[in-house]
Structure formats: C-alpha cells, structure tokens
Amino acid sequence: MLKEITVALAQISCRMGDKQHNLDVMKRHIRQAKDRDANLVVFPELALTGYTCRDLVYELAEPVPQGPSIRRLEEVTKKEDLHVVFGMPERSEKARGALYNTAVLLGPSGFIGKYRKTHLPTHSAFEEKRYFRLGYQAPLFETDIGRLGLIICYDVFFPEITRLLRLKSAQLIVCISASPAVRRGFFEVLTVARAIENTAYLAYVNLVGVEDGLQFWGGSRIVAPNGKIISQAKYDEEDLVIGRIDYAHLEKTETFVPTLRDLRPELFSLLKEQAENL
C-alpha cells in the first residue's frame, strides 16, 4: 500500500440526463488527472446523470457493477492505472423500482466496491426518499492507495457514519456531494469537523452549475486530520485540483488529538436508546 498518494478533485458541471456527455467529461478529467500524477480521481454525487433528474432517474439508473457506464469507465481506469470514485443512480437487480444513490469505486483492475447513501434528505428542495432506498452498510475498502471509506453529501451531517468508518480503520474518507449554494457554510464547517474528530483525511467533491433552479457551489477540498485545508477548488465553476496525502501524518496527529483513544463506547448504546425514542 502506498504511504503517500495524489488525489484529484474533479469538480464538474453535469448535463442533466445525458450520460454520454457526462461520461466524456469524466474520461477527459481522468486523463488530465493522470497527466498530473494522480492516484485517485473523485467526481461529485450523481455525476453520471446530474442531480435533479426526478422521474427520469428510473430510466437512467443502472445495475452495479454490471451497468454499461461502469464498464466504460473501467476501460479508462485500467488504461490509466488509477482509482476513481463517482456517483450514479443504481438500480437493484431484484426490483427495477428499487433505486439507490450510490458511490462507485473503480481501480486499475476494475470494479472494487460501492456505497449506498445512508441519509437521504427529503426536505426543502430535496426529495431523495421519493426516488431512492436507504443504504444500510458502511463498507471499508482496502486498496493499494489506502483504506478508504465513502460517504455522500448529507451523510456528512451525521458524525456516526464517519466515526464507524474510522473505527474500521479508514485513513481517507471520500465525500461526494451535490450541495446547493445555500448550504455552503454548513459543508465548509462539517468537512473540517469530520476530519478533526476522526483524525482522518477527508476529500470532499461537490457539483457546480445550475440544475432546475438549484445552484451548486463547488468548493471541493481536501482536509488534513488536523483540520488544515490541503487543496481548495474554486467556487461556482468547474475545476480540477490536486492534493497530496501523506498517511504518516495520521499517527502524528493521533498523538496530539487522541480522539479514538478517548472514545466512550458505553455512550453508543445510550445514543441508540435515545434516538429510538425521539
């Protein structure tokens, strides 16, 4: 496993419902990232289709990993010898009407794994529970570029899932997002908080552009375990930003901020009890 990696934040604007166009954009950014020696390229939430597809999502969703879009991106990751994380609507193999908001991880050998969004916002401008089923797993992916955990957008509001990933020994937490501009202040605080409280690296990649009246603000970033911003993408426009991650800093940070050592596991059961009785 590499001790240092280069991560590319591919902050793109998607063409809603046009998978061919979005795939072409993603492949171009992957090649550009490879030219800059990236080991990992991260794209936003639902980058394959755009975020606000509504009922069209039933036609656009594909099974994972058998779908044709994954096969096309696998060709690129194999050729360029790097890893890619991107978001897409996943269709269950058991029921065509069962869809998930999914993050997919590909590597030089092809498909590695997937994460299904655990927390689905259904308030104000968001209506994800109308279309997607909840995810129930928080898998850890052991790769040549480190131990990775994946989360999606609204998940970052809930410290439990990133804590679970860190307890599974995640070194890098990748958060793909489709956050509108009104939520910018929340995400800039929460991404730093999740990195600090877990003494882990966090790579956050957000959409840009306007879809159906929603303006996505970009602002993708890599946060070090001490809260320092390693790389920051532009606001409100497409960008490809590179950042270097050195896993050796994890141990150094844990020495001075020993949050894992000081955990109180007995509080977890109390948290569950209180949540069940809201």
Quick structural gist:
The protein has helices at residues 19-35, 57-60, 68-80, 159-167, 184-198, 248-256, 266-276; strands at 4-11, 40-42, 83-91, 99-107, 110-116, 140-143, 146-152, 172-177, 201-206, 208-211, 214-217, 221-223, 229-232, 239-246.
Identify the overall geometry.
Answer: globular
Could you report the average pLDDT, rounded to the nearest whole number? 97
Residue share in helix: 25-40%
Beta content: 25-35%
Strands in their spatial order, largest beta sheet: 5-4-3-2-1-14
Provide the gyration radius in Å: 18 Å
What's the CATH topology label? Nitrilase/N-carbamoyl-D-aminoacid amidohydrolase
Supply the helix-strand structural class.
alpha/beta
CATH superfamily: Carbon-nitrogen hydrolase
Number of helices: 7
